[in-house]
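May I ask for a sample protein chain and its fold as tokens?
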Amino acid sequence: MSKPKILIQLDPDDQPSVFDSVVAIDSGVDQLFRHHSVQNSDVEGLVHGAIFTRGPKDLHNTAIFIGGHNVHDGEAILKKVQSAFFGPMSVSVMLDSNGANTTAAAAVLSASKHIDLSKAKVAVLGGTGPVGQRIARLAARQGAHVAVGSRLLNRSESVCDELSQIDSKWSLTSFATQSDNWIDSIRDATVLFAAGAAGYELISSDELQELSELKIAIDLNAVPPAGIAGVDVMATGNEVHGTMVYGAIGVGGLKMKIHKASLGKLFTANNLVLDANEIYDIGSELIG
């Protein structure tokens, strides 16, 4: 008889995410163990509790989900989780702190429905935040030339340097939106992502009109004003003046499908690590 599927939610926040918990239940998890205020020093004991209570042949029925709003904290917890495994004693684990991986995957996959990203020139506004960095990473992985934007040039340069360490063949440039002529840095962009902080317009209607090669614009800000001026939060590939546009909620439907599919994938083996690339690949399978 198959063991029930247990998902262990590790959240460094004071309260575990209700959103992540609801999605876990809706994805078919039988039992959900929610741990909040998780520190690095707590992780080994929690992991050992997961791997020592079931034999190796049943460990695929236990999995770990790492959430919380702080992606850096989530990444540190992921490393601690992996370091607590040994030999066949492991369970599958998924990182999606602040929804960064599933959101970025959904955004890039939405663009890929309309354009060959290997030939695209991609601009990412808010490119130094957790979602923006992953969008840049996933687009570069597809072969796109990616321009990473931030208010401060040293921050966008730092992200490009970090991404280049993953793959030196990726085509990456940096730009600063504080510059008076910053729009010149992305004038030939064919795909535009806005992944900045909620409630800030990152590009105006007049600036947008200067991007004469633009084919796709995807705004991930659900809080007014839109990050990309004029993009409806509900847009799902609507054509506006020759450009396909997506809003945050429009992308959100695919994000939810990817989130649930990724959680389901965890229970197919006991040695999976689902981070940005792996979650993107799951999403790619979903849309065919």
Remarks:
- The radius of gyration is 20 Å.
- The domain at 100-251 is CATH 3.40.50.720 (Rossmann fold).
- The chain has two domains: 6-95, 100-251.
- The chain has a mean pLDDT of 95.
